[in-house]
Request: fold
Amino acid sequence: MGLIYTGQEADMETGHSIGAKDANSGERVIVHASREAIQDYGPARVREVAEVKYDSGDLEPDGKVFVRTSDFDPVGNN
Reply:
């Protein structure tokens, strides 16, 4: 599947929201990243992990992809 990032981003109290679309259907997808994930791994890595989670169907009940620091392999394999 994959995601296409729209460039729409916003800082929120709970983290950072990144707008995206499903690469196949064009359906809107919201990626939410914790502040810690952005600070520790940077926006590019957060987007990579978000795509992996999205492609595997690892979504929140509301359909968002939520990227947390726990989604990154501490050994650096993720």
About this structure: Residues 35-55 form the longest helix (21 residues). The chain has one domain: 3-71. The beta strands are 3-12, 15-22, 28-33, 65-67.
